[in-house]
Automatic annotation (TrEMBL), chain A:
Pfam family, one: ABC_tran
Family: Belongs to the ABC transporter superfamily.
Alphabetic keyword roster: ATP-binding, Nucleotide-binding, Transport
Source species taxonomy: Bacteria, Bacillati, Bacillota, Clostridia, Eubacteriales
Residue ranges of domain ABC transporter in the record: 3-229
Protein name (record): ABC-2 type transport system ATP-binding protein
Family annotation (CDD domains): ABC_DR_subfamily_A (cd03230)
GO molecular function: ATP binding; ATP hydrolysis activity
InterPro entries cross-referenced by the UniProt entry: AAA+_ATPase, ABC_transporter-like_ATP-bd, ABC_transporter-like_CS, P-loop_NTPase
TrEMBL record, chain B:
Protein name: ABC-2 family transporter protein
GO molecular function, one term: ABC-type transporter activity
Protein species of origin: Desulfosporosinus lacus DSM 15449
Keyword Cell division attributed: no
PANTHER family found in the cross-reference section: ABC TRANSPORTER PERMEASE
Cellular compartments per GO CC: plasma membrane
Membrane-traversing stretches: 33-52, 72-104, 116-136, 142-162, 174-194, 223-241
Keywords annotated in UniProt: Membrane, Transmembrane, Transmembrane helix
């Protein structure tokens, strides 16, 4: 495991930011870390990167205990609130971080990351004159300098335009192809869905669900039904069998099914009761609907 | 200033003695104001050195790299010491050059040993201020730290004055209070010792300055006091490292 934590807890006075976090992350995957604002995601990342000290619990990152400096030699981190020395040029900043990483082949690595983040030709301008998106790119370049085995990206696309977001997605995919483990914290669920292999949902400092992305999204099928002749009596009868059955404003129905095999039976039942079927459209559940279910339910229950 | 002092009560009736007195005053004030300027600039440099990076979040990108936290503190201290000492050396040299240019006997009569000792003591002042300010920068916000450090620095001047008043009225408890204040803020003690080295015959000038309420000036510091100052500086750097090493970077 490239990251392993046991009951990792962080308290600030009476407030618990992270509560008994257990993570077990295999190397070489893109790992999504999801939750609402203030759920404790950034605090958890900061504990893993050694910026914040846990109140209790333990863990290892790259086989070293949390906070161990040697682990950071092969670890990249792009903070959520990225801020860099704005009086430096992009090149100066990369040189500075290359020195912090004690890199031997600084020049090669700097030109590699500049190319990767699309800042070639912009490196001699002052960081202060960069747009927010360019600052995020230079931050990403700094994090990629040591050719990391593990990289933490805390909201890496928050300041980027759609093209920039796609570029970052491509970088994440190429990092994964090279065997780098990417720990991604993002509110852009479509982005997480597109690149992550596994996700963990965190709510009010606690892990509420961890699963592989394919397992998470394949568990439920959302079926949209357009039909005519559905009586209230029949709707009530079907609702007893399928609690998730809902009538939408445009008159169509939606129902959440566990399996594709349930679709023919439902269609047969509708036809047998004199309903005229025009359309049956199954959808895979999106990460957004899963997120709303998991985090929303937790929010209501707490 | 040369027009002002002949009319004061201190210089009244001094006749031909006035010129060396005025020269001493110019030299003393040159050192005094430049030392105060250096101390305040050092406070400005040091108060936000770490605090402002903590506040802006800039530090997150640095401390997530493979460096120890003590290296960060010592790196900051080293850089600021070089900067403050360079500036202090520049000012110190300028005072000497200007004094020599106008043929001030207080400057032209200085020996090499006096200049070197004076220079080292002059450098010690910003370094000592920096050690305390850096600890404040780890513990407080930049602005609060700056205000507190200026207060502590001025407190040292008050301590010198209190000690001097104690000596004047021969009251041991007042002297003790002055010494206690100097232990909290030993910067005036460093300055006074430097002044005694660079302007050795400045007792008359010192009394004139004190009469004008510009500064206090106690006895020159003993070797024990300098040992205390060394412990004071090391202590605050150690405390800064210790506090910073356990600090959550949020």
């Amino acid at each position: 495991m490239i990251i392993e934590t046991h009951a990792l807890t962080k308290k600030y006075g009476n407030k618990t930011a992270c509560d008994q976090i257990d993570l077990s992350i295999e190397a070489g995957q893109v790992y999504g870390f999801l939750g609402r604002n203030g759920a404790g995601k950034s605090t958890c990342i900061k504990m893993l990167t050694g910026l914040v000290f846990p109140t209790s619990g333990s863990g290892t990152v790259l086989g070293r205990p949390l906070g161990d400096v040697s682990a950071r030699e092969k670890m990249g981190y792009l903070p959520e609130l990225f801020r860099y020395q704005d009086w430096m040029t992009g090149l100066d900043l990369l040189n500075f971080h290359a020195q912090l990483f004690k890199l031997k082949n600084k020049k090669d690595q700097i030109s590699r990351v500049l190319k990767l983040v699309g800042l070639v030709g912009q490196e001699n301008y002052k960081v202060g004159s960069y747009s927010k998106g360019m600052q995020q790119r230079i931050g990403l370049a700094c994090a990629l300098l040591p050719n990391p085995q593990l990289i933490f990206l805390d909201e890496p696309t928050s300041a980027l335009d759609p093209i920039g977001r796609k570029d970052v997605r491509d970088i994440i995919v190429s990092l994964k192809d090279e065997g780098t483990t990417v720990f991604l914290n993002s509110h852009l669920l479509s982005e997480v869905e597109a690149v992550c292999d596994s996700v963990t949902f965190i709510h009010k400092g606690k892990v509420v669900k961890s699963a592989r992305m394919d397992e998470l999204l394949m568990t439920k099928i959302l079926l949209t039904i357009r039909a005519n002749g559905l009586t209230e009596e029949l709707f009530a009868k079907l609702n007893k069998q399928h609690e998730s059955l809902q009538k939408l404003a445009d008159g169509s129905l939606t129902v959440s099914l566990n399996d594709y095999e349930e679709i023919p039976a439902l269609a047969a039942s509708l036809i047998a009761n004199g309903v005229t079927l025009y359309e049956l459209t199954p959808h895979r559940e999106t990460l957004e609907t899963v997120f709303m279910q998991i985090v929303g339910e937790e929010g209501q229950s707490s | 200033m040369l027009n002002y002092f002949p009319n004061t009560s201190v210089t009244h009736g001094m006749g031909n003695q006035f010129k060396p007195f005025a020269i001493q005053m110019v030299t003393k004030m040159g050192f005094q104001f430049s030392a105060m300027l250096i101390a305040l600039l050092t406070i400005m440099l040091g108060s936000g050195a770490i605090a402002s990076e903590l506040e802006s979040g800039l530090i997150q990108g640095i401390l997530s790299r493979p460096i120890q936290r003590y290296q960060y503190i010592l790196g900051k201290l080293g850089g600021l010491v070089i900067l403050a000492c360079t500036y202090a050396t520049l000012l110190f040299s300028l005072i000497l050059v200007i004094g020599a240019f106008f043929g001030l006997s207080t400057i032209t009569s200085l020996t090499f040993s006096q200049i070197m000792t004076g220079w080292l003591l002059y450098l010690l002042l910003p370094v000592a201020v920096l050690c305390l300010t850096l600890f404040g920068s780890v513990s407080l916000k930049a602005v609060s730290n700056g205000i507190l450090m200026i207060f502590i620095y001025i407190l040292g001047n008050v301590g010198g004055m209190v000690e001097m008043i104690g000596q004047y009225v021969s009251n041991n408890s007042v002297i003790g209070t002055g010494i206690f204040i100097s232990l909290i803020s030993p910067f005036q003690t460093i300055y006074s010792t430097m002044e005694r080295v660079m302007v050795p015959n400045s007792e008359l000038a010192a009394s004139a300055m004190s009469a004008a309420s510009l500064s206090g000036s106690g006895k020159p510091a003993s070797l024990w006091m300098f040992l205390y100052i060394a412990i004071y500086m090391l202590g605050f750097v150690t405390l800064a490292i210790r506090k910073f090493s356990n600090k959550d970077i949020t």
